């Protein structure tokens, strides 16, 4: 038998840290006091009303909601749960044992079972703990006598005399069930919390809880697998008995593990003391170095001070000699009293030289030494940064590497990293980043802690370069910093739009995805039927599609990807007053100058073709980017053909009347030209043959999770 006093750990409520009082069984199979459930729910509701403020955490003197629970409250608040919905709402409860949000269902606390078995064990523990304290009779006149029995039907304790009085022979009360003195009164029959007039007689194997026949017929357990209470009792008791017997049979193994753990405890104590000593010695070395540097710096300042004071003091004495009846002037005045010419000349010659030097010094006065000590200012900025990053380094913790292929920067920055060995040895990562600015002498890193291996960063400046680095932490041990990765933000705010499926959209040649973020041109039967009438040349028109949102002013940027197999794609902008002309334009893609029998190569057709276009477009296709033929462009056609970037971007500046085409991966401008922004400007695309264009999606907080699911 297990001693009652040895199981106290199992009888403590995880919320109030005291012995259970009327314990309830949560859906996660953990137990908690009935009073604690109500207090936590009240604090939970207050947190919803106050937006999860810290003041709501003081609603109960017994219960303190942990930081993790408060984070869950904030997460539920942000999830947009309707607290006043007309539909039946469920009650969320933060379990203090498993730290999960438990759904209590529509009935809340009223739908929870009371754990009478645990309550009985707690009562036996209380009785064992207070064996010397007797339970007094509830009906004796003062002073009460010690009770000898307790009635489970009356929920009261009696001495022998009071029991006979209140349970007379031959009455209904004489049939009541009585036990030894106790304060734990449990009902004889366990009733269903959902159907209060029905007793539980079945066990739901799915929900792992007792249910009544109404729960099975039309309640929430109608489609669940249930068994009879006697069968569940027998099965669970056999399983529990076998498991207990197995653990008891392994008592020697458990004791061996306990002995091993005791040794590990002692070893941990010794190793921690050794680590403290080594860390203390390391810091003592730093203190020693700093003390030496401090002594040397103070000594150098003191020496310089003495030299300067000596020079200034000498200069003071020299100028004091220039005063009347003092020093050099006084001596000269005495020499002037000499009447013998030969003696005067002999003395006055050298004296006159000294007087002249003193006069020149007076005219160009300059202190003999500087009073400032700017040369002795100690610059400790770098050392402070190094000491700020001072931590335990371990060769066993891998250096994370930023995966540039998975990183992207658009409206926000998505930074992803991984460990070389594909292991997750760190508990948490620290991501740092800063803006590259040549004017700033010192670098200020912005820091953020991340539990995963990716982070979305917002509030970055436009048209700027940022450096990113990451390191891993496991406890107080950290890895070295990863290699810095530099990324560039778009030159303007990101403009979001979808493909317009109404204005001029040709659904015979173009196919949109349901989200209208991708368009595909297929060279199918319509193209073959159209070319059936042609005998010479390849006169095929482009299929145009525009964005569903226009731009009136300001500077905007959007990005897209062109599939590598695309034959011909044109991208750019079109003003609103030329959209109709765009979709009714009958000019063909190829000019007569390229026909074998054209007969000339003047290029006049190209000039007519370019001037007649209603919008500003550049040509992409066959994995190439074609710079338009303009006077400023290279004359050699080969110099105007560039490799097609994996992601393209367009930057429209309505205020300046300029449009630029960018390599969106490097944020480098490939071509820029003037554009007429007299009306609303719409993104425009044209496709011919097999081609596809995908709009770049905005980076959100769950961008990585969404793409991982795909």
Automatic annotation (TrEMBL):
State if Zinc-finger is listed as a keyword. Answer: yes
| All copies of domain B box-type, residue ranges | 187-229
Q: Where does the record place the Fibronectin type-III domain?
A: 396-492
Instruction: Please give the chief subcellular localization of this protein.
Output: cytoplasm
Q: What is this protein called?
A: TRI36 ligase
Q: Name one GO cellular component term.
A: microtubule
| B30.2/SPRY domain sequence ranges | 477-704
Domain of life where this protein originates: Eukaryota
Q: Cross-referenced Pfam families, in alphabetical order? A: ANCHR-like_BBOX, COS, zf-B_box, zf-RING_UBOX
User: Molecular function terms in GO for this entry?
Assistant: ligase activity; ubiquitin-protein transferase activity; zinc ion binding
One of the protein's GO biological processes: spindle organization
Family as reported in the entry's similarity comment: Belongs to the TRIM/RBCC family.
Q: Which residues form a coiled coil?
A: 258-285
* Keywords from the named record: Coiled coil, Cytoplasm, Cytoskeleton, Ligase, Metal-binding, Microtubule, Repeat, Transferase, Ubl conjugation pathway, Zinc, Zinc-finger
| COS domain location | 336-393
Annotated localization: Cytoplasm, Cytoskeleton
Q: Which PANTHER family does the annotation name? A: E3 UBIQUITIN-PROTEIN LIGASE TRIM36, E3 UBIQUITIN-PROTEIN LIGASE TRIM36-RELATED
């Amino acid at each position: 038998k297990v001693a009652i006093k040895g199981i106290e750990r199992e009888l403590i409520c995880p919320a109030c840290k005291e012995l259970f009082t009327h314990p309830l069984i949560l859906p996660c199979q953990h137990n908690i006091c009935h009073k604690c459930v109500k207090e936590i729910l009240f604090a939970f509701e207050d947190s919803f009303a106050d937006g999860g403020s810290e003041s709501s955490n003081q609603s109960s003197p017994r219960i303190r909601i942990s930081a993790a629970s408060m984070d869950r409250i904030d997460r539920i608040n942000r999830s947009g749960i309707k607290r006043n919905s007309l539909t039946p709402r469920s009650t969320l409860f933060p379990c203090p044992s498993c730290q999960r949000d438990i759904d209590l269902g529509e009935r809340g606390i009223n739908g929870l079972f009371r754990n009478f078995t645990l309550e009985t064990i707690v009562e036996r523990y209380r009785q064992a703990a207070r064996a010397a304290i007797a339970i007094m009779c509830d009906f004796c006149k003062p002073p009460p006598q010690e009770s000898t029995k307790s009635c489970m039907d009356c929920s009261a304790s009696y001495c022998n005399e009071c029991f006979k009085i209140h349970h007379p022979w031959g009455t209904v009360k004489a049939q009541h069930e009585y036990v030894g003195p106790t304060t734990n009164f449990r009902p004889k029959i366990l009733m269903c919390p959902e159907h209060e007039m029905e007793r539980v007689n079945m066990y739901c194997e799915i929900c792992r809880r007792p249910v009544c026949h109404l729960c099975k017929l039309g309640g929430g357990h109608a489609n669940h697998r249930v068994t009879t209470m006697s069968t569940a009792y027998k099965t669970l008791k056999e399983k529990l008995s076998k498991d207990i017997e197995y653990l008891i049979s392994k008592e020697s193994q458990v004791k061996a593990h306990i002995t091993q753990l005791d040794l590990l405890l002692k070893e941990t104590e010794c190793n921690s003391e050794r680590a403290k000593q080594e860390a203390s010695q390391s810091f003592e070395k730093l203190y020693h170095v700093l003390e030496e540097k401090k002594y040397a710096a103070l000594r150098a300042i003191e020496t310089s001070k003495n030299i300067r004071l000596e020079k200034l003091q000498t200069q003071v004495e020299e100028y004091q000699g220039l005063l009347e009846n003092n020093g050099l002037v006084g001596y000269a005045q005495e020499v002037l009293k000499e009447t013998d010419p030969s003696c005067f000349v002999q003395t006055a010659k050298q004296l006159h030289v000294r007087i002249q030097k003193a006069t020149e010094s007076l005219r160009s006065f300059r202190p003999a030494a500087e009073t400032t000590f700017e040369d002795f200012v100690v610059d400790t900025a770098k050392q402070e940064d190094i000491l700020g990053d001072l931590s335990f380094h371990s060769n066993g913790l891998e250096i994370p590497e930023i995966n540039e292929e998975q990183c992207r920067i658009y409206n926000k920055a998505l930074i992803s990293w991984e460990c070389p060995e594909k292991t997750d040895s760190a508990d948490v990562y620290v991501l740092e980043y800063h803006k590259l600015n040549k004017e700033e002498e010192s670098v200020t890193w912005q820091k953020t802690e991340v539990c995963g291996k990716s982070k979305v960063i917002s509030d970055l400046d436009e048209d700027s370069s940022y450096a990113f680095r990451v390191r891993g932490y496991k406890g107080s041990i950290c890895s070295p910093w990863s290699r810095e990765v530099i990324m560039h933000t778009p030159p303007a705010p990101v403009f979001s739009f979808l493909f317009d499926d109404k204005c001029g959209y040709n659904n015979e040649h173009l196919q949109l995805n349901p989200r209208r973020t991708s368009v595909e041109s297929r060279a199918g039967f319509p193209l073959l039927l159209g070319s059936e009438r042609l005998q010479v040349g390849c006169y095929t028109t482009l299929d145009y599609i525009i964005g569903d949102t226009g731009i009136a002013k300001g500077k905007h940027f959007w990005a897209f990807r062109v599939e590598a197999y695309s034959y011909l794609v044109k991208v750019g902008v079109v003003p609103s007053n030329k959209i109709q002309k765009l979709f009714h334009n009958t000019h063909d893609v190829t000019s007569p100058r390229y026909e074998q029998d054209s007969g000339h190569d003047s290029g006049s057709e190209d000039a007519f073709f370019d001037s007649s276009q209603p919008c500003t477009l550049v040509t992409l296709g066959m994995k190439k980017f074609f710079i338009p033929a303009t006077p400023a462009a290279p004359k050699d056609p080969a110099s105007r053909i560039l490799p097609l970037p994996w992601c393209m971007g367009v930057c429209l500046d309505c205020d300046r009347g300029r449009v630029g085409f960018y390599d969106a991966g490097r944020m480098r401008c490939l071509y820029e030209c003037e554009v007429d922004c007299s009306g609303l400007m719409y993104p425009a695309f044209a496709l011919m043959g097999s081609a596809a264009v995908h709009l770049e999606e905005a980076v959100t907080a769950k961008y990585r999770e969404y793409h991982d699911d795909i």
